[in-house]
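--- STAGE predict ---
source: upstream dedup step, 1 unique chain passed
mode: sequence only
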Amino acid sequence: MQPATSLRTAIKPIVSQPDRTFFVYIMSNRSRTLYIGMTNNLARRVYEHRHPTDDSFTARYHLTRLVYAEPFNEVLDVIAYEKQLKGWTRARKLELIEASNPGWRDLAEEWLGPTL
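--- STAGE serialize ---
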């Protein structure tokens, strides 16, 4: 019988993609409502938030501004960090955003244009 391997070790060859970058990101609005997500295509995902096709949380609250993004090479790392951020207090999330983006500017504005 073979020794048990960790889930991370077993899954890594399946999900590890050498030329891929994954992102944890935070979307917001003028009222500073927050949405935390992850993606492998940040520009596409921000576009989808700006042009929703359903009655989603981001559509209801007009979460169209990318205020934070962090790249990762491994999908398991990005999943773990997204879960970690979602468990943080609002105050800690605000500190994270303000440390890298004190003016809460839309980080996607230069690729997608200004939000409406």
